[in-house]
């Protein structure tokens, strides 16, 4: 029975002990954090940005999570704090991760004993408290969730008096002013959004927080126990096992939301695009009508971390899951990563595994066969190309087959010319910097772009690299001269190539001439791409690459490029 002082505080029929029991499904703390990230990502909230921070409030370590999504009305906040309500629907191709109506509760209560939610919609502001400490203190027999709503004029509703008192007494915030200042923090990130603060964080046996906030000030690590063995184990395990930043970088197959950890944006990885020797395969499980795409490739960073990256509705469920051929003594498929989106399987409640069904087992079996085929094929090709080579494929240095960059404004992924030197990319990259004019706007959708393969000539590529380097960072004066001269010599080479090919066409005959013609038109086309990169007003469609006029034009532009670039970096 609620006491008189608790009258008006929403109740559930569950015992408070359930909060802890329910949270134990998260055996790994990052899976709890992922629940909170998913909620902001889902199509009902559609946040563009998400922030994870460590703060200390009144001497206590806290984790804070904030998004600039839709926020919640009072009714929705009540559902968020209750169990089992989930009515998320797909919006176009954006399919929700949330299905069970439990993630927030299990996730937040795994991280700490207490959580407070601040949320703002276009016309309301509400606060809700989900706190094990509070329920213990008032000896509650049922879970109670104090909820408070402010009207637009900042006045709270009369029926919320008991909730307000509970929040001020049992949360970290003891005055209305302090509550408002948290609500204002949401305002700084957008007109609407949600901010969650979790405190009384879980600790290790030695009494320290399970997260290590000191190891890297731009990251949150899972604390390693001091023992030699545990340090060795960490060195062997993928970074995403213990670094929140690394985990968030692969959490979504196609990222839609920017995640920031302790003030630094997480550079998301397009995992299937960061591999070497990529091969796409597909298969149709007997229980499905549709074929499923699988991407295989070699990990370009470490050959020790391999296996299947299994996603479900765009969200990572299992990482580096080795299939049977990778576990056998003969060690096949070393360094091979597979990427698959298994929407046809059912994730377990903590979203870290799939239900162990017949379908799951069949899928894993098929994946093993496919991966082994890929491994054999790559080794066979390599033997054929270089019969004397004795270094195993997994031991050779590899670079990703494709180069992708994410726009800092619209977050779309854009493909750069193969072989592009990423170290020359500026710290921030936007669609309007794209060398390809067809995709030089945030308005253009990625699907069209993804489908387009393109490659460049070596020299043209070097010119790009050079160009980017010059515009992307302030160079020291001696560096400017150096870059300027290499850019100008590259441009000269390109001009000479044009002349040489034209000469060959004039003099040559038969297949030789045809070959030269083909090369020339290809060079002109890719030079035209380069050209529009330097002259943004120009549109590729306006460039007539079939005529000689273009050579003249290109000549001039290459000249001007050098001028423009040097002008650009002179400060
Ligand atoms: N950051 C947020 N912004 C707005 N609404 C949210 C936010 N987080 C949660 N919600 C709301 O709270 C509800 C409950 O979230 P919860 O994570 O517990 O369940 P779910 O996402 O529906 O399903 P699942 O258990 O699979 O995660 C959501 O359905 C959503 O309506
Ligand atoms: Mg959820
Ligand atoms: Zn963009």
Automatic annotation (TrEMBL):
<dbReference type="InterPro" id="IPR041006">
    <property type="entry name" value="Morc_S5"/>
</dbReference>
<protein>
    <recommendedName>
        <fullName>CW-type domain-containing protein</fullName>
    </recommendedName>
</protein>
<dbReference type="InterPro" id="IPR011124">
    <property type="entry name" value="Znf_CW"/>
</dbReference>
<keyword id="KW-0539">Nucleus</keyword>
<dbReference type="InterPro" id="IPR036890">
    <property type="entry name" value="HATPase_C_sf"/>
</dbReference>
<keyword id="KW-0863">Zinc-finger</keyword>
<dbReference type="GO" id="GO:0016605">
    <property type="term" value="C:PML body"/>
</dbReference>
<keyword id="KW-0175">Coiled coil</keyword>
<keyword id="KW-0479">Metal-binding</keyword>
<keyword id="KW-0862">Zinc</keyword>
<dbReference type="GO" id="GO:0016887">
    <property type="term" value="F:ATP hydrolysis activity"/>
</dbReference>
<dbReference type="GO" id="GO:0008270">
    <property type="term" value="F:zinc ion binding"/>
</dbReference>
<feature type="domain" description="CW-type">
    <location>
        <begin position="398"/>
        <end position="450"/>
    </location>
</feature>
<dbReference type="Pfam" id="PF17942">
    <property type="entry name" value="Morc6_S5"/>
</dbReference>
<dbReference type="Pfam" id="PF07496">
    <property type="entry name" value="zf-CW"/>
</dbReference>
<dbReference type="Pfam" id="PF13589">
    <property type="entry name" value="HATPase_c_3"/>
</dbReference>
<dbReference type="InterPro" id="IPR045261">
    <property type="entry name" value="MORC_ATPase"/>
</dbReference>
């Amino acid at each position: 029975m609620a006491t008189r002082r608790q009258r008006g505080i929403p109740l559930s029929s569950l015992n408070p002990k359930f909060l802890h029991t329910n949270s134990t499904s998260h055996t790994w703390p990052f899976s709890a954090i992922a629940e909170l990230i998913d909620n902001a990502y889902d199509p009902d909230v559609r946040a563009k940005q998400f922030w994870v921070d460590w703060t200390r409030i009144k001497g206590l370590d806290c984790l804070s999570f904030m998004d600039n999504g839709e926020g919640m009305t009072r009714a929705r906040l009540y559902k968020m704090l209750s169990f089992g309500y989930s009515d998320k629907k797909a919006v176009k191709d954006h399919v929700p991760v949330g299905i069970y109506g439990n993630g927030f509760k299990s996730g937040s209560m795994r991280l700490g004993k207490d959580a407070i939610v601040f949320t703002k919609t276009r016309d309301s502001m509400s606060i809700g408290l989900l706190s094990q400490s509070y329920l213990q203190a008032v000896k509650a027999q049922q879970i109670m969730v104090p909820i408070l709503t402010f009207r637009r004029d900042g006045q709270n509703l009369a029926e919320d008096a008991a909730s307000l008192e509970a929040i001020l007494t049992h949360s970290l915030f003891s005055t209305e002013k302090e509550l408002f200042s948290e609500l204002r923090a949401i305002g700084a990130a957008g007109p609407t959004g949600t901010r969650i603060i979790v405190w009384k964080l879980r600790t290790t046996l030695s009494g320290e927080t399970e997260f290590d906030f000191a190891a890297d000030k731009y990251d949150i690590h899972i604390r390693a126990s001091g023992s030699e063995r545990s340090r060795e184990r960490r060195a062997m395990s993928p970074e995403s096992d213990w670094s929140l930043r690394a985990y968030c970088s692969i959490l979504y197959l196609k990222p839609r939301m920017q995640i920031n950890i302790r003030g630094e944006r997480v550079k998301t990885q397009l995992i299937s695009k960061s591999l070497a020797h990529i091969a796409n395969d597909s298969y149709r499980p007997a229980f499905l009508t549709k074929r499923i795409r699988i991407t295989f490739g070699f990990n370009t960073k470490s050959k020790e971390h391999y296996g299947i990256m299994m996603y479900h509705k765009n969200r990572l469920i299992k990482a580096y899951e080795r299939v049977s051929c990778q576990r056998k003594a003969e060690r096949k498929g070393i360094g091979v990563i597979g990427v698959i989106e298994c929407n046809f399987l059912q994730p377990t409640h903590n979203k870290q595994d799939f239900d162990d069904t017949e379908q799951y087992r069949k899928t894993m079996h098929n994946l093993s066969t496919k991966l082994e085929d890929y491994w054999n094929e790559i080794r066979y090709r390599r033997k054929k190309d270089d019969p004397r080579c004795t270094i195993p494929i997994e031991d050779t240095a590899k670079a990703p087959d494709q180069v992708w960059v994410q726009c800092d404004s619209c977050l779309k992924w854009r493909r750069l010319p193969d072989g592009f030197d990423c170290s020359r990319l500026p710290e921030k990259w936007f669609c309007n910097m794209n060398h390809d004019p067809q995709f030089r706007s945030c308005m253009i959708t990625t699907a069209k772009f993804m489908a387009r393969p393109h490659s460049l000539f070596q020299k043209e590529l070097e010119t790009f690299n050079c160009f980017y380097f010059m515009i992307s960072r302030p160079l020291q004066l001696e560096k400017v001269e150096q870059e300027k001269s290499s850019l100008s010599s590259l441009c000269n080479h390109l001009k000479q190539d044009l002349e040489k090919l034209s000469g060959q066409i004039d003099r040559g005959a038969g297949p030789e001439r045809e070959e030269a013609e083909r090369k020339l038109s290809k060079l002109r086309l890719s030079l035209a791409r380069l050209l529009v990169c330097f002259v943004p007003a120009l549109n590729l469609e306006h460039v007539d690459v079939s005529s000689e006029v273009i050579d003249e034009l290109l000549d001039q532009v290459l000249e001007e490029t050098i001028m423009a670039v040097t002008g650009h970096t002179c400060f």
